[in-house]
TrEMBL record, chains A, B:
<dbReference type="InterPro" id="IPR036188">
    <property type="entry name" value="FAD/NAD-bd_sf"/>
</dbReference>
<dbReference type="InterPro" id="IPR050982">
    <property type="entry name" value="Auxin_biosynth/cation_transpt"/>
</dbReference>
<dbReference type="GO" id="GO:0050660">
    <property type="term" value="F:flavin adenine dinucleotide binding"/>
</dbReference>
<dbReference type="Pfam" id="PF13738">
    <property type="entry name" value="Pyr_redox_3"/>
</dbReference>
<dbReference type="GO" id="GO:0004497">
    <property type="term" value="F:monooxygenase activity"/>
</dbReference>
<dbReference type="InterPro" id="IPR032710">
    <property type="entry name" value="NTF2-like_dom_sf"/>
</dbReference>
<protein>
    <submittedName>
        <fullName>NAD(P)/FAD-dependent oxidoreductase</fullName>
    </submittedName>
</protein>
<keyword id="KW-0560">Oxidoreductase</keyword>
Amino acid sequence: MTASVTPAAQVAANPAAAKLADWLGRFEAALAAQDVQAALALFGDECYWRDLVAFTWNLKTVEGRDQIRDLLEARLADVKPSNFRTEEEQDATDADGITSGWFTFETAVARGRGYVRLKNGLGWTLLTTMTELKGHEEKKGRNRIKGAEHGVNPGRKTWLELRQEEQAELGYSRQPYVLIIGGGQGGIGLGARLRRLGVPTLIVDKHERPGDAWRKRYKSLCLHDPVWYDHLPYLPFPDDWPVFCPKDKIGDWLEAYTKIMELNYWSSTECQHAEQDPATGEWTVNVLREGKPVTLRPTHVVFALGMSGVPNIPKIPGQDIFKGRQEHSSQHRGGDEWKGKKVVVIGSNNSAHDICAALWENGADVTMLQRTSTHIAPSDSLMKLALGGLYSEDAVEKGMTTYKADLTFASIPFRIMHTFHIPVYEQMKKDNADFYGRLEKAGFMLDFGDDGSGLFMKYLRRGSGYYIDVGASELVANGSIKLKSRVGIESLTENGVLMKDGTELPADLVVYATGYGSMNGWVAKLVSQEVADKVGKCWGLGSDTTKDPGPWEGELRNMWKPTQVNNLWFHGGNLHQSRHYSQYLSLQLKARYEGIPTPVYGLQEVHHKG
Amino acid sequence: MTASVTPAAQVAANPAAAKLADWLGRFEAALAAQDVQAALALFGDECYWRDLVAFTWNLKTVEGRDQIRDLLEARLADVKPSNFRTEEEQDATDADGITSGWFTFETAVARGRGYVRLKNGLGWTLLTTMTELKGHEEKKGRNRIKGAEHGVNPGRKTWLELRQEEQAELGYSRQPYVLIIGGGQGGIGLGARLRRLGVPTLIVDKHERPGDAWRKRYKSLCLHDPVWYDHLPYLPFPDDWPVFCPKDKIGDWLEAYTKIMELNYWSSTECQHAEQDPATGEWTVNVLREGKPVTLRPTHVVFALGMSGVPNIPKIPGQDIFKGRQEHSSQHRGGDEWKGKKVVVIGSNNSAHDICAALWENGADVTMLQRTSTHIAPSDSLMKLALGGLYSEDAVEKGMTTYKADLTFASIPFRIMHTFHIPVYEQMKKDNADFYGRLEKAGFMLDFGDDGSGLFMKYLRRGSGYYIDVGASELVANGSIKLKSRVGIESLTENGVLMKDGTELPADLVVYATGYGSMNGWVAKLVSQEVADKVGKCWGLGSDTTKDPGPWEGELRNMWKPTQVNNLWFHGGNLHQSRHYSQYLSLQLKARYEGIPTPVYGLQEVHHKG
């Protein structure tokens, strides 16, 4: 964001900004006086305050005046908020009783940025985020390093010598403060932020090269999200980057990014076991680096192994006698070798559709087994209706930076987010009525989420249950990809899949596009079941919809925030989330590294083990 | 540049822009009517028109009404200029009788952008540049490729397969249209532009990895130009990039850039011989790729081997009997191995100073032999006085994009450029009077260019004769680096250097920091002396100052524009020039590739052979 605080004269020029400035002024005064009652009086009956680190050292949404009261009483004396100022006044709006816009503020130890929506002049949704710790700002822009130390300095070391020294020492004679397990987009983006903040960090990844987690997927894979949504921190894609980036190209980008950002990245490194000293909270992590054992002793461990956990493979009778190949979708390499062969793909989400389409294109005889209903969102429709306002060329031209888009998205409390989405998907249903009709006629079981809120809510609640259609649905509708739905699997036979209705589907290959477990499955694998249970389920909001049991959490479980196990963190999600939330995770880690007190407000309880 | 044409109402809001709009309107009307006389009447007695490709298919500055008349008479019917519009009106200024600002225009085949300065309402300096060929625009922004072809397409190839196919074929079963010899910043930046324009291009470079031309220099080397000046096309450095980038870091950036931009880049490839078919103008180029001979048949060859030619090593009696090591500065690796040893560095420009300082830091006993006077520009002073207005954090904050800065710089005709620079260096002299005094007291011979116009004019005229001081001058002034000046070299002896005054300087190492020949030396080496002579000297303006003999050329000789040898081009210079001029060279090559007629106006004559 290039904005700076605007003089009062200009604020006055936009009446919406003036209204916000007035509200913020009164809010600040109440907070400064530690007058909680006065602060609460500024909020409406329905109100939400989402805080990302600035007030709570947590990612936390409080709902209603009582919860806001509790937060203020617990944190106000410590946080000492001040200096609330409207910002980017040209964006402030006032329509249908809702006044909204940007602001900046400070706390005792940090600077922050926020977004507020007033309903009839009273606080409805409030977002506060930490942007930087005072005295620990990134060295960028005017504060960038000089590179060449001018003057003379006998015995000085060059950039290369210092870099080589660091690479030789880190993990051996000098321990990283943070160990990131998993070097995909999540680990890399977080690593870049920690690097800028000067937190000694090591990323370990089992693959040979950064980007391999993408390269090794099925060969037709392209990103399902568009380029405007996918930037990494600090280095935006060039302006000719494809809308939907092919997997190998994004792999190469991640590899280049890792080098450009000077990350300490150990490829071909398998994490074997991690154990925490209960007294100090510090970790001992055994890894195999290119086959050689190394013991790491980081203070913090971040699991950045994707938003998914360990691959799910359902247990089906006969798996031991089937003579063909069986593989999880994460192991499947593409359609090339299956020309003229018969393939059964179990599952009907993104990977299942992509894999079926590529198999069909390569001349395989392919059947999709749909087990439960699926939400289909045509890509163009999704771009136009759901993402376009924040992430598109139109948005860019209107001055919507990636950062502002991320914050705007973050400003909607999860509790009411579905109400923003339902109309979008109703429109999608209308716009694509013929398409959906043909799909259903082919036997495909469709849904739009339990409450009609569509793709993104499904993603947040359960991380599954949808396909962003880039062409495969047409193949299902017209029968090119054979569909078997509304009937269960009885067993595998020697030569295929036997359905409960007695039909047998001959198969040379069975692909289990059956998803992944919760991320704390990695903890069970690398630490212990006990610790995994203590941490509990990751992801999901507690919305009490399919695969997202209550109670209500208000934030994604365990993601980017303190967990019930000290010094154990989870980072992941799509490129958008990795980019945006890495900011808050990096600031939490930096504060701890610098010894800044970080009392966590509202640490989540664990309601589900995985 | 994000600007778009501004409505008349807004133009009127800035009176300077309104004045320009009026002038441009009359200029356009005269051109449309092919009324050369009316067009000339719009220019003052002193007037310059610099055209980069748009009107002349050349880089050409015409000076005075007679030359402008000639250009218009020769090119007007063909170019059909139209649609002149002011642009970025907020930047238009009107002060001291000079009105200046940006505009856009079109020709029959292209779109362009320009900058004009009126003196008392009449044209004083006019810049016209080609930005894109109609129908051959880069696929960027809204026109970027989709990446994933949605829908289904049996037999489709993935991005990776297509890329691998191209890499396997290009140079073997399929010939590049353009061969770029030299894969430093120049070849890489030009390659990126040609890639975007869809011109099949191959870059060959003798080093093992892109960036090695930097990596293999002396280890203390950092860029002498600041980061804002050094961006490559399309992918700006991240905002924490050091002000003066260390050589290995810029090497890694170039390597990453090459991959990100999908360049066809052959490392470890030595060019052995190139020959042109006189009938077709096409080339046969023999290269050794990783030791294996390959014959390439490109239509165009671009020499991008730096702004320098073959290293100059002066002939000195006794070079055959000296027992120590002798090396050119381009071969010198740094001071590490010379602790406690005696070193004589012949030369007193950038490399000489850097090398002396690093040797001293490493504990060598080092003597600099200054042969002729040198311009010293303290780095901070240079940033503040000369570059800051266009290339600095201040400039960025004021909305000065890299592209606008480049065009602004390009808008000053070379004929009068020194008049803009002389006051800058007079200020530098004043600001650093004490420093310069101490240097002279130590015996250092100083100059500010023949006419006091300082560093950049020296760079343009002769490409040598200066040091951007980042600390070594202090070591010269205080005697840490011993200085020998005002006395010639008699010979090398077995153990050192004998000076004409009879002193002998013992030496374990002699470094020849003695510069490079003209770039057409590469042509002599790879093609023939005859072709090198036909092309003539590269670089320099014909200013009739030291090492830049007249007659006046108006543009840098042979750089980025047609030469006397068809299909033979030169590309090079610092990062700024490589970035900016690669645009015009790439458009000239693209037009030829597409068969668009490119009649060259004012092809330079050759006045010097090298």
